[in-house]
């Protein structure tokens, strides 16, 4: 469920440590003016503020995957790594972008993005975790702020101008390489050396995190080495190799470091392969028959222990093609094997809605919620099923609690808006839509919607007071956001 997509990323606010200063570019990007070269390192609070601003811009421009099940998996994996990382000073937020290119990036405030294409190239969870651990290290070691300061010592440009060169490459890495080529030889070599130092440091901290989190540390050199070999002579390497170059000495260094850790036999992660199957079925931009062919071919070469993940993937394809009679026996058989599996619960809920049997989904999800009453995947599916049952007021109560607990999840606000539309509550519908706009940094439109909601509410009512208070909050947030530009 919830397979909404957005336009391609026009400009990603991402950590990349491979470009020289480009003051003109910074002006064109309207990047935050965060002081002069002598201003010193950013505070953690400042980094969090910039990270929140960048994330709102990304929601408006990037094809972010708002999939509750995949989000839960990525969040669980990411925080398992964060719990074993050193120097953690910020909260972390993990999210996915629908893009077949191999890439991952991090930016201020502990935000880490994973391209869906990583799942298509990583062969196991440890390989995916190695990339995430590397990005986590970029955040914990504050490489973006340190790189900006390093450049500031060698150029009269402000840090804001320097940020322009650092935040471009994920969206347009070719432009970054062109800028690097155009730089003076001395400045270019200094930046290359600093970048390589940061990359190696991120590898070093990342491997330590992998080990403490119980993953196979050899996955990092294995994955990096395979990427380097595959794209060694490619005319257009993937963005990850442009922003995270893999010279042979770096691959060798990670291999030698990995040898210093005890070898750990890590069993296949069933959830990883379920997540991969979901991406192939829904987010790989391939035709249904191509997805089914991939499942059939890959299953023949895979361990019997993950056979069910291919059945799940095929069932999703059938479900999305509305071939409910073919998907139903597969999903119900999988559910009987593991009734607490959220991948199965989510798919079955959609199946029963498609079959016009929402009560089956309500019964199934109600039982699951008894064990995990606040779980986001279960709650959002439960609310969606209640809406299908026309139990709109009950759905609203669930969604109000959900949006309170998960205010940054656009899915909840979309469903809440739909529910209020069904109830004819135009003011609450406008308020829910305003929250979506605010999450995308569309402040003026959000304030406009809340203003309209306030005008529709009863004069002097608590509801009107709530809307007016939210208008004041949004105006403060807007002013802070605009001050960064």
TrEMBL record:
Residues 1-26 form the signal peptide. The keyword Protein transport does not apply. It is found in: Periplasm. GO terms for cellular component: membrane; periplasmic space. Its main location: periplasm. Its EC number is 3.4.-.-. InterPro entries: Mito/Outer_Membr_Metalloprot, Peptidase_M48, Protease_BepA, TPR-like_helical_dom_sf, TPR_rpt. HAMAP family: Protease_BepA. CDD domains: M48C_bepA_like. Zn(2+) binds at residues 134, 138, 199. Belongs to the peptidase M48 family. BepA subfamily. It comes from Vibrio scophthalmi. GO terms for molecular function: metalloendopeptidase activity; zinc ion binding. Its cofactor is Zn(2+). GO terms for biological process: proteolysis involved in protein catabolic process. Binds 1 zinc ion per subunit. Pfam families: Peptidase_M48, TPR_19. Functions as both a chaperone and a metalloprotease. Maintains the integrity of the outer membrane by promoting either the assembly or the elimination of outer membrane proteins, depending on their folding state. The keyword Hydrolase applies. It is an enzyme of class 3 (hydrolase). This is Putative beta-barrel assembly-enhancing protease.
């Amino acid at each position: 469920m919830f397979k909404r997509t957005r336009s391609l990323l026009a400009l990603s606010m991402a950590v990349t440590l491979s470009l020289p200063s480009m003051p003109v570019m910074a002006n064109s990007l309207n990047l935050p003016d965060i002081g002069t070269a002598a201003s010193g390192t950013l505070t953690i609070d400042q980094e969090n503020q910039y990270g929140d601003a960048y994330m709102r811009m990304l929601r408006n421009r990037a094809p972010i995957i708002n999939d509750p099940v995949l989000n839960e998996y990525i969040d669980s994996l990411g925080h398992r790594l964060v719990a074993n990382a050193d120097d953690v000073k910020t909260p972390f937020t993990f999210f996915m972008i629908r893009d077949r290119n191999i890439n991952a990036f991090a930016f201020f405030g502990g935000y880490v993005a994973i391209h869906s294409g990583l799942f298509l190239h990583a062969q196991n969870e440890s390989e995916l975790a190695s990339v995430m651990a590397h990005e986590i290290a970029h955040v914990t070691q504050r490489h973006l702020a340190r790189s900006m300061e390093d450049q500031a010592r060698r150029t009269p440009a402000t840090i804001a101008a320097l940020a322009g060169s650092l935040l471009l490459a994920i969206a347009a890495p070719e432009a970054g390489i062109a800028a690097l080529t155009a730089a003076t030889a001395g400045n270019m070599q200094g930046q290359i050396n600093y970048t390589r130092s940061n990359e190696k440091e991120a590898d070093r901290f990342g491997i330590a995190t992998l080990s403490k989190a119980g993953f196979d540390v050899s996955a990092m050199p294995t994955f990096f080495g395979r990427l380097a070999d595959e794209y060694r002579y490619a005319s257009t390497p993937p963005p990850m190799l442009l922003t995270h170059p893999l010279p042979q000495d770096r691959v060798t260094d990670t291999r030698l470091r990995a040898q210093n850790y005890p070898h750990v036999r890590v069993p296949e992660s069933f959830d990883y392969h379920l997540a991969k199957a979901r991406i192939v079925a829904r987010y790989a931009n391939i035709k249904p028959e191509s997805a089914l062919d991939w499942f059939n071919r890959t299953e023949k070469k895979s361990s019997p222990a993950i056979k069910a993940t291919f059945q799940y993937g095929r069932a999703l394809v059938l479900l999305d093609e509305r071939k409910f009679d073919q998907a139903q026996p597969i999903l119900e058989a999988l559910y009987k094997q593991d009734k607490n599996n959220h991948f199965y619960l989510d798919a079955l809920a959609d199946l029963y809605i498609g079959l016009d049997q929402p009560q089956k989904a309500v019964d199934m999800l109600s039982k699951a919620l008894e064990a995990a009453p606040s779980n986001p995947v279960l709650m959002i599916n439960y609310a969606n099923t209640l809406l299908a049952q026309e139990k709109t007021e009950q759905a609203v109560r669930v969604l109000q609690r959900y949006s309170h607990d998960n205010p940054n999840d656009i899915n909840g606000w979309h469903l809440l808006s739909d529910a209020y539309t069904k109830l004819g509550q135009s003011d609450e519908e406008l308020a829910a839509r305003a929250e979506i706009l605010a999450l995308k940094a569309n402040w003026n439109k959000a304030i406009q919607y809340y203003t309209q909601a306030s005008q529709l509410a009863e004069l002097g009512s608590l509801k009107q007071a709530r809307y007016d208070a939210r208008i004041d909050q949004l105006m403060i947030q807007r002013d802070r956001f605009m001050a960064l530009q």
